[in-house]
Amino acid sequence: MLYTALGGLALVLALFTIGAHHKVAAAAAVFLIGALGFATVPPLQKRVLDHAHGAPTLASAVNIGAFNAGNALAAWLGGIAISGGLGYTSPNWVGAALATSALALAFLSSSLEKRAARRTPSPQQAAADTRPPVSVP
């Protein structure tokens, strides 16, 4: 779901730049941006909580703080794009770039997690490795 939401968000933001001057296309894009942006929250929150066994409340608070920091960063970068003379639709490209980078980070995170899981022994293997050797009389 996370990959779908982030990929869809990047695509819709990029397409909104083209369709921003058409009422129906703009309305559809604004709806999809909101829906896809909202759809990223549950899978990210679940991912964070799945890895925060010792302090789930703290991890949840930090995750929401990261969302707020991302909103502020995107608004700032979008403002820079507009003030740089790139036009009023340029924040959509900024958003598409940020969503694409988030998608890349999600893939990287998943890849690193899978690599670490391959190196970590299963609980049965770990238990077998810690048993004292059996001496044969």
UniProtKB/TrEMBL annotation:
One of its GO terms (molecular function) is transmembrane transporter activity. The keyword Lipid metabolism does not apply. The chain crosses the membrane at residues 24-44, 65-87, 93-112. Residues 116-137 are annotated as: Disordered. The keyword Transmembrane applies. GO terms for cellular component: plasma membrane. It is a multi-pass membrane protein. It is found in: Cell membrane. Keywords: Cell membrane, Membrane, Transmembrane, Transmembrane helix. SUPFAM superfamilies: MFS general substrate transporter. InterPro entries: MFS_Efflux_Transporters, MFS_trans_sf. This is MFS transporter.
